[in-house]
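REQUEST FORM: STRUCTURE PREDICTION
Request ID: SP-0412
Submitted by: Lab K.M.
Chain count: 1
Length (residues): 219
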Amino acid sequence: MLFLAVTLGFLVENKREHYIEDKRATQLVSSLIKDLQKDTALLNWLDGFRLQKRKARLDSFYGLLQMPPEKIDKKVFYPLFYGICEWYPFIQSSGTINQLKNAGYLRYFSDNKLLEYMSDYEFLLQDFKNDENIEFHLHYDKLVQLIKQHSNDADMYKFYIADSLPSGIGLTPFNPELLRSIKAYTLEQMWYNQTQMTKQNNRVRNKAVEFINYLASIY
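STATUS: Completed
RESULT:
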């Protein structure tokens, strides 16, 4: 009788633990789906921002650079320059994935397919962030700094500190060689802006949607 009671107690406790783990696994999956949905929503927003930035700012700024420096209107140049300086990084909603990796919760899942999806998604995100870091370096450390270093200090102060548009025609500090460098950096930024939108965003977003659909169908 004692053996039977101990055995039954063990089975009940084991069943209770499995119930708690299954419930916790379901909660984690639900939380992971929400995180992935936030990622896709942010990627969609970034797509819209990048498209608007290209059409309203980058294309116009590059077109303006085709003019001789002495004929460029400062009231047009500086707002466009400020506009291409606006930049937003992708910030992953990584709370649940971090819990799964760092808190030992992966033991709740024996499904190798889930681990494959998570690994593939993390790999694509890392590739996406690497390109984003290159884009930011090109954008800020090269293009922005180059323009700031060679702009008229009074014009830069007026625009950035006094919040007032510089007036007049002609960018006297911008010689042809400098303008060629600015054009080259602007073209690179246009390329990264387009690539992140059409290639990287789509790769990450498609994998996130695929991951969500899988989780919803299994759990």
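NOTES: The helical segments are 2-64, 74-85, 95-102, 112-150, 153-160, 176-218.
Reviewed by: T.R.
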